[in-house]
Write a structure and sequence with these properties.
The complex is a heterotrimer of chains A (317), B (306) and C (354). Chain A has 317 residues and is an all-alpha fold. Chain A has a domain at 96-279: Orthogonal Bundle (MetI-like fold). Chain A has 12 helices and no strands. Chain A has helices at residues 2-29, 34-37, 45-55, 61-73, 87-122, 127-141, 144-158, 179-212, 215-222, 227-264, 269-278, 282-310. In chain A, helix 6 (127-141) crosses helix 8 and helix 7 (144-158) packs across helix 10 (227-264). The longest helix of chain A is centred in the last third of the chain and has 38 residues, at 227-264. With 306 residues, chain B is an all-alpha fold. By secondary structure, chain C is an alpha/beta fold. Chain C has 2 domains: 18-29 and 43-233, Rossmann fold; 258-353, no CATH class. Chain C is 30% helix and 23% strand. Chain C is built from 12 helices and 12 strands. In chain C, the strands form 2 sheets. An 8-stranded mixed β-sheet of chain C has the order 6-7-8-3-9-10-12-11, sandwiched between helices. In chain C, strands 2-1-4-5 form a 4-stranded antiparallel β-sheet. Chain C starts with 17 loop residues before the first strand and ends in a 6-residue tail after the last helix. The chains are: A mainly alpha (317), B mainly alpha (306), C alpha/beta (354). Chains B and C meet through helix 7 and helix 8 of B and helix 2, strand 6, helix 3, helix 6 and helix 7 of C.
């Protein structure tokens, strides 16, 4: 158990290293030379020379990488071309809003997905199952950025119940735990939750359905176990796989929020990214991607570390 | 030493030579024919297949259809509602015919959605089979690289690469292809590794055949269908992502019609004519739904479990 | 020794077809913090034996004793860590390349589902090997049809079928035909009849006997079923935890089970004679973990005659009852071993089997 934990922890290091290499290379796959890619167009020759000295763009790639990584580890992700502010400051301000959105979406998507999946799997091949299956395949097929627009049309434009864009009243960009802010988060969170919900539903339905058709369930019934006890066995058996699917979907929530935030003008990392794209602000793009990817790596790490606690089969040593 | 192998066991009378025959037609059905027969019995998959086929035919032959010019706008005919004479599906924010733009837009969206999966299927299958069949250091090199790409949620990776490369059709194709290579490689590697351990592959190896021949004849045919089904399940995601990139301004550039881009430029119209604004998204949704349902049908017709 | 007519015979009848010397293969077990090799399954650990031309050598033992690994080593599917294989006087890796080995040695596999490619017709499966050897398509096809006929499956009805349309016995006939299509001198049958029903098993065994006579084959017959091995084999080799514990002519071993493990294995056979049935389980428990096998004699943890010496030193291989072809590795057969029953062994082991 301890070796498993240590091994899993040790495995994070090469992955995080690889992630940083890919993020570093983003500036180099951009067309044109990397210097102009990270500088405003109107930068003076002096500014350019200064930048050259800081990043060492004339040195070999591995050296450049080392310099960049050194700075990144110290929390220096460069300067935004568009705003001239520190990328790390921009990202840290935005990442909180993204996480809030992801947390709300998880609270909607995962419990519902698990519940629906369970119901469909338990009543497999009935009308209920077919309805849930149709709902979940709709969920995974819908382009959520479109769904967001549709929800805005229905709930903001037509019914006028909820605000259409923004994170709070009066253009507030900082999350607060109050009723007004809650009204703003409902639509984006629901939109973001739809795809993970569909995927979790499909997975859980398949797991539960498979499990109930296995021989040991008949054996349990023959032993005289009631419905409730059998359900307990089912829950025990589907938890590990469900957990790992949920873990993967956490990453989807981080990534998927990019488009949703654009639709709802939600002041998170996605909004930051879409601005960076629009203004070709590569340092901002690079920094934001790096932070989000590392979040995903650690989210998966945590899921993997929790996994053995719920899965008696894993006793890797 | 007497070879007792030369002795014969008295076979039970009545079963001499052959065990009881099952009645099987002498002409055997090939694998793909069987899959198709089963698929034909799945009404949902067949309907979806038919819709997709129709959609493909329409977008491919769009230039030969009696459609309005998708680029020609009119300042006086902006945002005409659905059902307007001459514009069955209305007009967009610049007065261009929606039907023509949706059909021409479908060309780009479908191409941008499907081609990356095709490319990634070719590359990922090759890498996965190499890693799974040869194993060892090559496997480690390929699969650890794949792991790194897996550390990125797919949308994030697509946006990162597209964002760095800049907007454009080719860049969008490249970035989506890169996004789908790792998952296909992973599936290909795992099915290949399991097929490789089967005894018919051993039997082929001890025939002295060249490793490439063993892979072609004995591995490829048996790993292809699960990889293929997996790839088809990615087409819907790929199309949503491709349209999403255009939606963000990373794919197709205006004035070219593309569903994601149309969805974005029509966003301002939601207060005036929500139906028009929703049309491009409906197309993405309907196509993606059909792709998913067809892929599901294919999966069960091929008897593949996850 | 039976006369062997084969144009490829190099060393004459006195030269064993296979000399397997000190075959060793360990499979590393990954573990620890950085996936380093934490140990090794000692699947085959210093196995030495010969296969004479024209004989059937039976290999028996519990599952996990290294029978199948030995088979895969013999046919070159996996490499040796140590030791050598000499085929008719030529050493593998020296004059003899893998490709040459496969000209002479083929294998019939156990699992009849996994051993046939589901995407190929029967005819394609059998013709694949010869085609790879440069036989023309037409000739390979004709050969496949001839062999189908020979193994009792009418080509007109079976050639175009797929494996899933056949019964287990039929598939195993295909397996045999595929091996024979390579025109081997030695066929390794790894649990080739174990998965079949008893009546079908008998038919396949008869077929194997006929084919052996017809093509002048040599067999290595691996099975966990002692009854079958006793029936088909000329000599029998008993393996335990990757080692050979006893080898000898089948009747000889049957009469004098020199090694306590052999004795236990034979005693564990189900008997048709109610009087011969025993209440006492002859072999208790599972074999020990091959990653960390017991010291000294590997069987000492389960042996009823075990003494201190058995856990300390590895027994030497001794001749049993003065019959040079009957060997066993037990301290009780070695007068110098210090075992209290040393030297008394052959009389100790029950002679009353026949």
């Amino acid at each position: 158990m301890l070796t498993y934990t240590l091994r899993r922890l040790a495995y994070v290091i090469p992955v995080a290293f690889g992630v940083s290499v890919i993020c570093f290379l983003l500036v180099h796959i951009a067309p044109g030379d990397p210097l102009t890619a990270v500088m405003p167009i109107d930068a003076t020759a002096e500014q350019q020379a200064e930048m050259m000295a800081i990043y060492g763009f004339d040195r070999p790639l591995p050296v450049q990488y080392a310099i960049w990584l050194g700075k990144a580890l110290m929390g220096d992700l460069g300067t935004s071309i568009a705003t001239g502010r520190e990328v790390s400051a921009e990202v840290s301000r935005a990442v909180g809003n993204t996480l809030i959105l992801a947390v709300f979406a998880s609270m909607i998507g995962f419990p519902l997905g698990i519940l629906f999946g369970f119901i469909a799997g338990y009543f497999k091949d009935t009308l209920v199952d077919r309805a849930v299956t149709a709902l979940s395949i709709t969920g995974v097929s819908v382009p959520n950025y479109w769904l967001g627009i549709v929800l805005v049309v229905i709930f903001s434009v037509n019914l006028g119940w909820l605000p259409s864009v923004g994170a709070g009243p009066g253009g507030s960009t900082a999350w607060k735990w109050d009723f007004e802010h809650l009204r703003y988060i409902i639509l984006p969170a629901v939109t973001l939750a739809v795809v993970p919900m569909g995927i979790v539903t499909r997975t859980v339905r398949a797991l539960v359905g498979d499990l109930l058709s296995q021989d040991f369930i008949d054996a349990l019934k023959a032993k005289g176990l009631g419905r409730f006890e059998i359900l307990k066995h089912v829950v025990k058996n589907v938890t590990p796989t469900t957990l790992s699917v949920v873990g993967l979907q956490l990453g989807y929530l981080l990534g998927g929020s990019i488009l949703i935030e654009t639709v709802f003008n939600w002041p998170g990392t996605g909004f930051l990214l879409s601005n960076a794209i629009f203004q070709r602000d590569l340092p901002l793009l690079q920094g934001t991607i790096l932070v989000l990817a590392l979040f995903f790596v650690f989210a998966n790490l945590i899921v993997d570390l929790v996994q053995p606690l719920v899965d008696p089969r894993i006793k890797r040593g | 030493m007497s070879a007792s192998m030369d002795a014969r066991i008295e076979a039970t009378p009545g079963t001499v030579g052959l065990e009881a025959e099952t009645t099987v037609p002498v002409r055997s059905q090939g694998y793909w024919r069987g899959v198709f027969t089963r698929l034909k019995r799945d009404p949902v998959a067949m309907v979806c297949g038919a819709i997709l086929l129709l959609l493909f035919l329409v977008v491919i032959f769009a230039p030969y259809l009696p459609l309005a010019d998708p680029y020609k706008g009119s300042m006086i005919a902006r945002l005409k509602p659905v059902g307007t004479p001459g514009h069955i599906l209305g007009t967009d924010e610049l007065g261009r015919d929606m039907l023509a733009r949706l059909i021409y837009g479908g060309r780009l969206t479908l191409m941008l959605g499907l081609l990356p999966v095709v490319f990634a299927f070719a590359i990922g299958t090759t890498l996965g089979i190499l890693a799974g069949y040869i194993g060892g250091a090559l496997n480690t090199a390929i699969m650890r690289t794949v792991d790194v790409f897996f550390a990125f949620p797919s949308i994030l990776l697509a946006i990162a690469i597209s964002g760095a490369l800049g907007a454009g059709i080719v860049n969008s194709l490249v970035s989506l292809t890169i996004v789908f290579i790792p998952p296909i490689t992973r599936v290909a590697e795992s099915v290949t590794a399991s097929v490789r351990s089967l005894e018919y592959v051993d039997a082929a190896r001890i025939s002295g055949a060249h490793p490439l021949t063993v892979v072609r004849v004995h591995v490829l045919g048996n790993v292809m269908s699960p990889i293929f089904v997996y790839a088809t399940s990615l087409t819907s995601v790929s199309m949503i992502l491709a349209a999403g990139l255009s939606f963000l301004g990373l794919g197709v550039k205006p004035p070219q019609p593309e569903w994601g881009l149309m969805l974005n430029t029509l966003r301002t119209a939601i207060y005036i004519d929500p139906l028009i604004a929703a049309l491009p998204g409906m197309m993405i949704f309907a196509t993606s739904l059909c792709l998913n349902l067809l892929s599901d049908g294919l999966r069960s017709a091929m008897n593949i479990k996850d | 020794m039976r006369e062997v007519k084969n144009s490829r015979d190099r060393g004459g009848p006195a030269q064993p077809l296979v000399i397997a010397n000190d075959l060793t293969r360990h499979f590393p077990v990954r573990g620890g913090l950085f996936g380093k090799a934490a140990g090794a399954v000692r699947a085959v650990d210093g196995v030495t034996f010969t296969v004479e031309k024209g004989e059937t050598l039976g290999i028996v033992g519990e599952s996990g004793c290294g029978k199948s690994t030995t088979a895969r080593l013999l046919v070159g599917l996996i490499g040796l860590d140590k030791g050598e294989i000499v085929l008719d006087g030529e050493k593998l890796g020296g004059d003899l390349r893998l490709k040459d080995l496969w000209d002479d040695v083929q294998m019939v596999f156990q699992d009849s589902w996994a051993s046939l490619n589901p995407r190929l017709t029967i005819e394609e499966t059998i013709a694949f090997g010869p085609k790879m050897r440069g036989v023309s398509k037409v000739d390979a096809r004709r050969l496949a049809h001839d062999l189908l006929e020979r193994v009792g499956l009418a080509p007109a009805r079976f050639a175009g079928r797929y494996p899933h349309e056949l019964s287990g016995g039929q598939r195993q006939r295909i397996n045999i035909a595929r091996a024979l299509a390579m025109k081997p001198r030695l066929v390794i049958l790894d649990e080739a009849v174990s998965a079949l029903d008893k009546s079908v098993e008998a038919q396949v065994l008869n077929l194997l006997a006929d084919l052996k006579a017809e093509f002048g084959l040599t067999y290595v017959f691996i099975s966990h079923d002692l009854n079958v091995v006793r029936f088909v084999a000329d000599r029998i080799m008993v393996m335990y935890l990757g080692e050979v514990v006893e080898i000898g002519p089948v009747d000889e071993v049957w009469r004098r089970r020199a090694h306590p493990y052999t004795s236990a294995l034979f005693a564990a056979m189900p008997s048709m004679d109610p009087d011969a049935r025993t209440e006492k389980p002859p072999l208790a428990g599972d074999p020990p973990n091959p990653i960390d096998p017991p010291s000294g004699c590997r069987f000492h943890t389960r042996c009823q005659y075990a003494e201190a010496v058995c856990g300390k030193s590895v027994p030497r291989t001794s001749v049993v009852a003065g019959i040079a072809s009957h060997l066993a590795a037990c301290h009780m057969l070695d007068e110098a071993s210090g075992h209290t029953k040393a030297g008394a062994a052959p009389t100790l082991i029950n002679e009353a089997a026949e």
